[in-house]
């Protein structure tokens, strides 16, 4: 029974919507609600974009450390028992392995807790608000349909004197239900929008701190390797690569390499 009742109401609302498009039924307009709802939709879009970009930032941070680790591990494959990796090379591999693990256990978890999870919670409220807006729309259609019914009975009085009072009573009830939801949304939507800054500020601060910590940690770990490499390489005067290339050019197999 409830299914049939709901189906009938949805069918009536669809008919009302169609008649409003043709101008047969007036549409109740509320510019204040329209303005607040537009502001909310802008906020929703921006928050979802921010959440997506924050996730991309974490993925990029993970990808960087993972790629560094792969490079370090691949470099190790060039050495064996006869050609031993230099002390600097071994320290580089250890450093990258440690940094990659620390990023996963510390920075990764902290970023999810302080940035991604708060953003996800904020975005999780948006579907509920949109559902409330849909309910308002349904009540608006019911109200518009009842107003149209009253107007028709006034223009063309029925032989049954009870029809008009009953229609007016139903219209009043529909108006109360519509205006009740409308008032709640007009009151609460600005609050949701205004709370965006105090809510997002801590997450924004956490994002900046995470980025700073990641950069500082990267610098400190790699800076500690500086003594492992020659002063000539540090000053950009290392000619060893040119010497090796010259030796390769002298080989018959390389041709015009």
TrEMBL record:
Transmembrane segment boundaries: none
Gene3D superfamilies xref list: Arfaptin homology (AH) domain/BAR domain (1.20.1270.60)
Keyword line: Cytoplasm, Cytoskeleton
GO CC annotations on file: actin cytoskeleton; mating projection tip; medial cortex; Rvs161p-Rvs167p complex
Major location category of this protein: cytoplasm
Cell compartments where the protein resides: Cytoplasm, Cytoskeleton
Top-rank taxon, per record: Eukaryota
SMART domains assigned: BAR
InterPro entries: AH/BAR_dom_sf, BAR_dom, BIN3/RVS161-like
This protein's name: BAR domain-containing protein
Organism from which the protein derives: Lichtheimia ornata
């Amino acid at each position: 029974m409830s299914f049939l009742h709901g189906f009938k109401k949805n069918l009536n609302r669809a008919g009302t919507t169609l008649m409003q498009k043709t101008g047969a039924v007036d549409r109740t307009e509320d510019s204040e609600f329209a303005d607040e709802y537009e502001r909310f939709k802008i906020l929703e879009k921006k928050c979802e974009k921010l959440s997506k970009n924050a996730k991309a930032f974490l993925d990029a941070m993970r990808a960087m450390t993972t790629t560094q680790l792969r490079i370090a591990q691949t470099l190790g494959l060039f050495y064996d028992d006869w050609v031993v990796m230099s002390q600097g090379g071994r320290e580089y591999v250890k450093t990258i392995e440690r940094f990659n693990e620390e990023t996963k256990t510390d920075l990764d978890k902290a970023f999810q807790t302080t940035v991604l999870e708060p953003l996800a919670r904020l975005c999780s409220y948006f579907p509920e608000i949109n559902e409330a807006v849909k309910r308002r729309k349904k009540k608006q259609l019911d109200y518009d349909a009842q107003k149209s019914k009253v107007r028709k009975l006034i223009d063309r009085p029925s032989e049954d004197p009870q029809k008009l009072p009953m229609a007016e009573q139903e219209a009043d009830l529909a108006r109360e239900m519509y205006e009740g939801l409308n008032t709640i949304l007009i009151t609460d939507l600005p609050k949701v929008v205004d709370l965006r800054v105090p809510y997002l500020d801590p997450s924004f601060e956490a994002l900046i701190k995470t980025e700073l910590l990641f950069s500082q940690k990267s610098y400190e770990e790699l800076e500690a390797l500086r003594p492992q490499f020659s002063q000539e390489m540090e000053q950009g005067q290392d000619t060893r690569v040119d010497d090796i290339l010259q030796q390769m050019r002298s080989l018959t197999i390389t041709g015009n390499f």
